[in-house]
Design goal:
This protein is an alpha/beta fold. The protein has 2 domains: 1-159 and 510-542, Chitobiase, domain 2; 166-509, Glycosidases (TIM Barrel, Alpha-Beta Barrel), CATH 3.20.20.80. It has 19 helices and 21 strands. Strands 8-9-14-15-16-17-18-21 form an 8-stranded parallel barrel, surrounded by 6 helices. The chain has a 7-stranded mixed β-sheet with strand order 1-7-5-6-4-2-3. Helix 2 runs parallel beside helix 4, helix 5 runs parallel beside helix 7 and helix 9 (312-328) crosses helix 12 (364-381). The longest helix has 18 residues, at 364-381. The protein is globular. Bound molecules: ligand TNX. Ligand TNX binds next to loops.
Length: 542
């Protein structure tokens, strides 16, 4: 057996080297992985070499290695010839053709590690791969002793399949603390996901401070109680927990979270729901609704009839809200919801009917379409793009708007054919509020459905019926965690993992290289990483 250079230096080490080499188990699977001989060993003397444009990523690497190793690695623009280095290099000339915006090359030899990319995002993903080449204990949150921090020698070339690799978290149905939002962003970045879709408003809670409308959080962020279990058919048997629930993110919190996400190459796409899922806002300002009734923030689940009115005042209110949202979130896309807006109140409202007449519209669907266009015009005048759930297609859609296809793939197919960009988010493969097992008695209460790991893994975001040209409109896919039945971070992690690991591979790895058997083998190692991070993932074999 050939001993690597690193192994000849001490007897203790060579014993470790004679053991079977640690398998390379990267999630999501890289495009090319070529194992070579030997290993690189990380020590307190390892130096991270990063030129100016790579320095931030270098510091991120040093920080992420610090807790488990106890090393505070130097990040330097160059290093003495004798030092063993991890070199991070941005290569501009011609490199875009090789790496794209997010690709990287990673070379590990016994004497050093090199990560090369065209953009810092690519280096960042190279760093995420490097972390996964180390023993899983590297993800420990405090110092781990007795582990040799070895990295198997390998040549890796890698880049993502899709540019939108997302996860949606509903913080409206159940408020999730700021620290958990940041942890989720970290976990997404670890899986090379780059979009955090933040569902901030709904019938049951308004979670974002808006300076111009303080009652949105004084009133709208709090509900007096929450339905226990599932609703009964006629509502008569419903019981409630009698506990006030709520919370919101201040604008300072949001700035902090946005900066945190930016440092991890995650874009936060905020969602402000309209014209439906609006009861918390209407409870705060009854004049925004259709009936003038004084409402509570909703305490049940489902689809509330209390949607926004179509009055000019309401439109201007929402544009004010979006104005503040734009000031906080640099995202190119702003999500305006658009789903499940029941039109009962618009049908009954004299004002809404007059509005339809005045605009020459034939149906309430066209009225919704007009409503969404008003937001589209507003967002585009400020250099942003609108995205919404697939109902925004009904009644016509403004040309620049993008569609999130949740009721199956059809919305996405129609939108792509009409030249709109699309993010796939179908219930069938990406609804992580669904059960992970058929034996629901052994699972925490969920909304219903059945979405096991292999079905998520088997998802193909490009519908077979699209032509190659149409398919270029599919930006990618995302999972959704709606939280009606997810009361806290612990359960959110249980619902997210390991299904998010599978989704990460769907959106990152080449379609041809996918194999569920190979994925589950790598996942066994990967779950040890999540264990080190104390992620409350569902076990592979419960
Ligand atoms: C549908 S998906 C909804 C949500 C619910 C979810 C529960 C979508 C755009 N709307 O309001 O939370 O189902 O699975």
């Amino acid at each position: 057996m050939m001993l690597s250079l690193a192994c000849t230096t001490s007897i203790a080490l060579s014993v470790a080297c004679l053991a079977a080499p640690r398998p390379i188990a990267i999630v999501p699977k890289p495009v090319h992985v070529k194992p070579t001989k030997g290993q690189f060993t990380l020590t307190a003397d390892t130096v991270i070499v990063a030129t100016a444009d790579a320095e931030d990523v270098g510091r991120f690497l040093a920080q992420s290695l610090a807790p488990a190793t106890g090393f505070t690695l130097d990040v330097k623009p160059d290093a003495p010839a004798t030092a063993r280095t991890i070199a991070l290099t941005i290569r501009s000339a011609k490199a875009f053709e090789v790496f794209g915006n997010e690709g990287y090359a990673l070379d590990v030899t016994p004497t050093g590690v090199k990560i090369t990319a065209h953009e810092p995002a690519g280096l960042f993903y190279g760093v995420q791969t490097l972390r996964q080449l180390l023993p899983p204990e590297i993800f420990g949150e405090s110092k781990v002793t007795g582990v040799e921090w070895s990295i198997p020698c390998v040549e890796i070339e890698d880049h993502p399949r899709f540019s939108w690799r997302g996860a949606m978290l509903d913080c409206a149905r159940h408020f999730m603390p700021k620290e958990f939002v940041k942890r989720t962003i970290d976990l997404l970045a670890l899986h090379k996901m780059n979009v955090f879709h933040w569902h901030l408003t709904d019938d049951q809670g308004w979670r974002i401070e808006i300076k111009k409308y303080p009652k949105l959080t004084e009133t709208g962020a709090w509900r007096k109680e929450t339905l226990r279990g599932h609703a009964t058919e006629d509502g008569k048997g419903d019981t409630f927990d009698g506990m006030r629930h709520g919370g919101f993110y201040t604008q300072d919190d949001i700035r902090e979270i946005v900066a945190y996400a930016r440092d991890r190459f995650v874009t936060i796409v905020p969602e402000i729901e309209m014209p439906g899922h609006a009861q918390a806002a209407v409870a705060s300002y009854p004049e925004l609704g259709n009936t003038g009734a004084k409402l509570d923030v909703w305490t049940s689940w489902g689809v509330s009839e209390n949607i926004y009115s179509t009055d000019e005042k309401t439109i201007l209110f929402l544009q004010d809200v979006l104005g503040e949202v734009i000031g906080l979130f640099p995202s190119m896309f702003i999500h305006v919801g658009g789903d499940e807006a029941v039109k009962t109140q618009w049908k009954k409202s004299a004002a809404a009917q007059a509005r339809m007449k005045e605009l020459g519209l034939k149906s309430e669907d066209e009225l919704q379409s007009w409503f969404i266009r008003r937001m589209n015009t507003f967002l585009e005048s400020r250099g942003r793009f609108l995205i919404g759930w697939d109902e925004i297609l009904e009644g016509g859609l403004a040309p620049g708007a993008a569609v999130m296809s949740w009721r199956g793939e059809q919305g996405g197919i129609t939108a792509a054919r009409a030249g709109h960009d699309v993010v796939m988010a179908p219930t069938s493969h990406t609804y992580f509020d669904y059960y992970q097992s058929k034996d629901t008695s052994r699972e925490p209460l969920a909304i219903g459905g059945f979405l096991p790991l292999d079905v998520v893994y088997g998802y193909e975001p490009i519908p077979a019926t699209l032509t190659a040209d149409e398919a270029t409109h599919v930006l990618g896919a995302q999972c959704q965690l709606w939280t009606e039945y997810v009361p806290d971070p612990k359960q959110a992690e249980y619902m997210l993992f390991p299904r998010a690991c599978a989704l990460a591979e769907v959106v990152w790895s080449p379609r041809e290289s996918k194999s569920f058997a190979d994925f589950t083998e790598r996942l066994a190692t990967h779950l040890r990483r999540l264990d080190a991070l104390h992620v409350n993932h569902r076990p592979l074999k419960p």
